[in-house]
Design a protein that fits this description.
The complex is a heterodimer of chains A (362) and B (240).
Chain A (H helix, E strand, L loop, with lengths): L2 H6 L2 H23 L10 H7 L13 H4 L3 H5 L28 H8 L9 H4 L13 H8 L5 H9 L5 H7 L2 H5 L5 E10 L8 E3 L2 H8 L18 H10 L3 E9 L29 E6 L5 E6 L4 H5 L14 H27 L1 H10 L1
Parallel strand pairs in A: 1-4
Antiparallel strand pairs in A: 1-2, 1-3, 4-5
Chain B lengths: L1 E7 L3 H25 L10 H29 L3 H5 L3 H18 L18 H26 L5 H6 L3 H26 L5 H6 L1 E7 L20 H12 L1
Antiparallel strand pairs in B: 1-2
Helix pairs in contact in B: 1-2, 2-5, 5-7
The chains are: A alpha+beta (362), B mainly alpha (240).
């Protein structure tokens, strides 16, 4: 701004400009003295106290490692806690932002669902831990639900109509059936038997174990052998055939997570999932664990990926994972059973006169 | 001289078992086909109905199988005698019965074996039923029970080779049972087998002078037990 322009401004405008400059100086001074976040994901000033369990009251502790993985960390602490008093911590409550300020669309969607009257956003999501669904496994998503929904009660309740309810609840994220997503993909996780026992419970394999198995190479190279960051169905089959201790488990996950939780009658139709080659089974990813606790999604060749998963000894999805060679063998066995009726029946028809003659003679 | 004699061949518990078993197996095959090929078959309307029907029919057939075993083994104590081929069956009976089905039947000759309450099955039937009732049925039932309880019986499933192996075995055993069913139904039409299984009684012609039959041996067509027609033929040849 030129001095000539300044002279032309009205007194009111000059006053406003001074107020704005003063506010900027105060804010800068405040930041120098007590930073609430630096918008780089480090948030060191806040975490220097809140990242240590002994320093702050229970409930205000924030796990620095996990917090830095969240999208909220990138916004900085002050994005949600903007008006922290200058003399913090003096015992006064620190104000929190309303989730609706940023997530208004989700909030409206959520308000229409069954959960709306039960709890708010914080009931399911800790803002200091929340991650994108694609960065967590289906089992981790279900752990959020099990905070309120007792797994035994849910198994019994689903068992009223759903065959093998325990198996279904273990193998599917709850949101697959209880949100009205339109598109789904198959998310495949590398699982490993607990304690390396053949009969141990299958758990999502951890980064350190897989890194050791990959022998210095990226973990994805265990499956993506040609390292083109794209897993073909053949590479999946080879992995299933050659890996002894590792398995792949497929989970049907919504592409876009809806927050309108509901009970959908369409999900009671078993062929929604149990149909080979359905549109829902075409897109898939392999979720490879990363060092920071998230998952790297590697795309898999389009196609009925569950057919490729059939090669995994412990994975079978009725109606969807079928071995076509086995179908052919079964058909051959049935045809063997038809040899007698068809072959013998034909000769029987041709020789019917012989038998009639004998009957007349006797 | 001959007269018609009625033999009580199939007691009522066996007849009930047989028809429960038959209808159960047919329902299992149809519902099983829909479960495996949901995109092409919808016999029992929804997939869930097919699963429920399959599970229920499977349980009924398993109970009915246990009843069959208990009845023949514990009540009648004739299980071994009826179902396990003896030395004579293996040495001559199987070949003779096979020759009958492949040749003699077409020439209008009578069956070399005639059923009695203590010897209901010909050597080929015995061998087939031995495989079906002592191998196929127990195995298909056991694999079915495992698949019905995947989570509680997970360790057992892994001990058997994993769920994929169990499913493959269950499927192939079911295909073998279907193959047997086709042959079984067809062979039932070759003789008077269906009526006794419905009403229990079989009518047979009995010849008075069977005892007087001379011991004449026709090459390739040896006398066997329960074969009055054969003795009658021998007598006719002798008189002519």
């Amino acid at each position: 701004m030129k001095p000539a322009d300044l002279q032309k401004m009205s007194l009111l405008a000059k006053l406003a400009l001074c107020a704005w400059a003063l506010a900027g100086i105060i804010a800068q001074a405040n930041a120098w003295g007590f930073s609430y976040g630096d918008q780089t994901g480090n948030n060191q000033a806040c975490l220097s106290c809140h990242g240590k369990t002994g320093n702050v009251p229970k409930g205000t502790f924030i796990d620095p490692q996990r917090f830095t993985q969240t999208a909220h960390a990138n916004l900085g602490c002050e994005a949600c806690h903007a008006t922290v008093p200058v003399n913090h911590p003096d015992g006064t409550k620190v104000p929190k932002a309303d989730c609706r300020d940023c997530h208004s669309g989700i909030s409206e969607e959520y308000a229409k669902g069954l959960h709306a009257s039960k709890t708010n956003c914080n009931g399911c999501h800790n803002p200091h831990l929340v991650q994108n669904p694609k960065d967590v496994s289906g089992q981790e998503i279900n752990m959020i639900c099990s905070n309120c929904h007792n797994s035994l009660e849910m198994t019994a309740k689903h068992g009223e109509w759903l065959p093998q309810s325990e198996l279904h609840l273990r193998m599917l994220p709850c949101i697959t059936c209880h949100t009205g997503a339109k598109d789904y993909y198959i998310s495949m996780y590398i699982v490993k038997s607990k304690g390396d026992s053949r009969f141990g419970k299958q758990e999502v394999a951890e980064y350190a174990e897989l890194k050791a198995m990959a022998d210095g190479r990226p973990i994805v190279s265990l499956i993506d052998t040609n390292r083109d960051n794209y897993v073909s169905l053949e590479e999946l089959r080879v992995f299933n055939r050659t890996q002894k201790s590792l398995r792949l488990y497929g989970m049907m996950t919504p592409s876009t997570v809806s927050h309108k939780f509901e009970i959908l009658d369409s999900r009671r139709n078993c062929s929604f999932c149990h149909t080979s080659g359905s549109g829902l089974m075409q897109t898939s990813f392999i979720a490879v664990p990363e060092e920071n606790g998230t998952f790297l999604r590697v795309p898999v060749e389009k196609g009925a990926v569950l057919d490729a998963l059939y090669a995994a000894p412990d994975f079978y999805m009725m109606g969807s994972t079928k071995n076509t060679r086995l179908n052919s063998i079964g058909l051959a066995v049935i045809c063997c059973g038809l040899i007698m009726p068809v072959g013998h029946g034909f000769v029987r028809f041709l020789t019917r006169k012989n038998r009639k003659q004998k009957e007349h003679q006797s | 001289m001959s007269e018609t004699k009625r033999i009580y061949l199939q007691p009522w518990p066996i007849r009930i078992w047989h028809w429960i078993n038959a209808s159960g197996i047919i329902i299992l095959i149809l519902s099983g086909a829909q479960i495996r090929f949901p995109e092409t078959l919808s016999i029992f309307t929804s997939y869930k109905s097919a699963i429920e029907v399959h599970n229920t029919a499977g349980i009924i057939v398993s109970i009915s199988f246990s009843f069959w075993f208990f009845y023949y083994k514990m009540v009648k104590n004739t299980l071994d005698k009826l179902y396990i081929p003896d030395e004579e069956d293996i040495k001559h009976g199987l070949v003779r019965q096979l020759l009958y089905y492949c040749f003699w039947y077409f020439l209008g000759r009578p069956s070399p074996y005639h059923a009695t309450p203590d010897h209901k099955f010909n050597p080929m039937q015995k061998s087939a039923y031995l495989a079906v009732m002592f191998v196929l049925m127990p195995l298909v039932g056991l694999t079915g029970i495992l698949l019905l309880n995947v989570t509680p019986l997970r360790v057992l499933i892994l001990m058997w080779g994993g769920i994929k192996f169990i499913v493959a075995l269950h499927f192939l055993l079911a295909c073998s049972l279907l193959a047997f069913l086709c042959t079984h139904v067809y062979l039932a039409t070759l003789g008077d087998y269906i009526k006794p299984m419905l009403i229990g009684w079989e009518e047979v012609e009995e010849h008075e002078d069977v005892e007087a039959a001379p011991e004449v041996v026709i090459p390739g067509y040896r006398p066997v037990r329960h074969y009055p027609e054969y003795e009658r033929e021998l007598l006719e040849q002798r008189h002519s």
